[in-house]
Model the fold of this input.
Amino acid sequence: MKIPIFKKASIALSVVLGLHITVTASAADSTNWYDRVNLGGDFRLRHEYIDQGQVDSNNQRQRIRARVKMDGKVNDDVKLVFQFATGTFETVSTNQTLDESYTNKHFDLDMAYVDWAATPNTKILAGKVKNTFFVPGGSELLWDADVTPEGLTVNWAGEPNDGHSLFVNLGQYWFEERDAEGAAPHADTLQYSAQLGMNCEMSGNKLVAGLGYHAFSAIKNHAVPTVGGAKGNSVTGGLYDNGFNLAEIFATYDFEVSSRAMQIYANYISNSDPSDENKAYLVGFTLMKLKEKGDWTLGYSYRNVERDAVIGALNDGDFANGETDSRGHRIQMQYQLASSVVGAATYLKGERNVSGYTGATVPEGADYTRAQIDFMFKF
Done:
């Protein structure tokens, strides 16, 4: 939203947010910088219960997530985007637990990137970027919703033709930078990603389907990330046993059942490096959509993630303690309490160490249950 009140508070804003945006205006453009800035954000209050079953450990906790997003228009084609969020230097979470005698909470840089509309159909993002790859039904098989990749993204969307259109997403990211002072090998691990998909309009229904490929260089026999760790992947002496070259198939289908909006979706991933424990899939549905007060949604998904199908440090941080080698269910209901206010209840029931991997930290088939009650506010 536009914020004209910044005219009287521009200096204070720079101090509070620790952010300076330089906007170059032509002599013919008399627009002030604060007319080119949009500000938004959200706050989530969560009560969470976790039962680790056979590990004989459970707990309840309250958590908060706060995010402030700001974008500044440099010119008609370029804008700068910054987002600050709570967190504890994690890759897959921006939550903060309410604990430790009321101590202050971390507020970190979550995104910082240039957004350049290079052509009417092409956008280029550079920096710590928003994840703009297509994710069917919010699937978090490959990467958690809180992951903000670091590097370069190119998004291309073709012009519709008879209700059909193509899209291409490309990315090159720095997954792990290793300096030469550590133990060998110290080559940097980079991620190279590509997606090709199609949107199809069919008698009021919509199908989105496509293929993806995600390759990680210099990762086999290299150290797992300091943040996140192995999270279920096969490791020996703190080094990955396998590489990760992930082929992806995805699809969503939107239609109506008795005048009620419904979406079904599927995501499948196969890692070509190991010969076994290398597949993952997720299928699910969502009924209804949130638009105004009183609306509700109901969603369900089932997943099976083999041990080395995806990188554990990046996939869903809530399901099965964020670990691969897991399978199970996710149920969620959301209710629109008011404009920009949503309540949600989520239940995740899974099994860990499904394969009986001897290097796992939990017994084979260990249960993992997580229940969450959320209240979310946006401005």
